[in-house]
Amino acid sequence: MxxxxxxxxxRQSLQAEESKIVTIVLSDEDQVAGEIEHAGINGITLTDGRxxxxxxxxxxxxxx
Length: 64
Prior knowledge:
By secondary structure, this protein is of the alpha+beta class. It has one helix spanning about 5-15; strands at about 20-25, 30-40, 45, 50-55, 55-60. Helices cover about 20% and strands about 40% of the residues.
């Protein structure tokens, strides 16, 4: 699960002019990639509608 510090870093990077394309490693070792539409307090929603709770995420772009 991502720490509060990792979540803050993720939100900061989303507010920058950087790409919102991410690679997500889930707790079951599956990997997904996509563009982030919204990063809320409970999880991440990608532009294609997929949603992942932080509790189910092991790593995002190397943040663990």
